[in-house]
Structure formats: structure tokens, C-alpha cells
Design goal:
It is built from three helices and no strands. It is mainly alpha-helical and 95 residues long. It has one domain. Helix 2 runs antiparallel to helix 3. The chain is elongated, with a radius of gyration of 22 Å. The model has no long low-confidence stretch (mean pLDDT 87).
Length: 95
């Protein structure tokens, strides 16, 4: 994290959620696996197997959709920075 300032967190200039998402993904996936194994050992083999497969896929899809929104935000920030640099270059060349 270059140029990290704690004040950036207070005014949402820096987002911390993308860093937390990976940890939350693995915790959620572990809960899905444990819940499915619990169902399998309780005698509901097909229900547990279906829960394992569909739960893992659904968890991955949900977290990827969240990551896409943060990626879009990051790319928009880059575009705005590039556009402001180009605007500054144009205004300096006019002088």
C-alpha cells in the first residue's frame, strides 16, 4: 500500500474491502464444506454432495461479482487520472 494515510480510510479514498474479500471467501467456502460434510455424515449423502457442489459454485460466483465491482471502480479511477493528466497537458500547451 503505497502512500497510505489513515485519513484516506475515513473519507473512503482508499477501499479496504478488496483486501478482506479473499479472507471472507475462504471462510465462507470452509463453512460450505463443513455444512456439506455434516449433511453427508448425517445420512443425507446426495443432499450434502449437491450442497457441496452448488455451494462452492455459488460462493465463487458471488465473490467474483463483488470483485468485478471493485475492479470497475479501480479502472474508472485510472481513467479519470489519465484524463486529468491529458487535460493538464493540453491546458499547459495552450499557454
Amino acid at each position: 500500500m503505497k502512500d497510505f494515510k489513515p485519513i484516506d480510510l475515513l473519507f473512503f479514498n482508499r477501499l479496504i474491502m478488496p483486501s478482506v474479500l479473499t479472507f471472507l471467501y475462504w471462510i465462507t467456502l470452509a463453512c460450505v464444506v463443513l455444512g456439506s460434510l455434516f449433511n453427508i455424515f448425517q445420512g443425507n449423502f446426495l443432499y450434502g454432495l449437491f450442497g457441496l457442489i452448488s455451494g462452492a459454485i455459488a460462493t465463487r460466483i458471488c465473490f467474483e461479482l463483488i470483485c468485478v465491482s471493485f475492479s470497475i471502480n479501480r479502472n474508472l479511477e485510472k481513467l479519470v487520472a489519465m484524463q486529468s493528466e491529458n487535460t493538464n497537458k493540453l491546458s499547459n500547451s495552450d499557454n
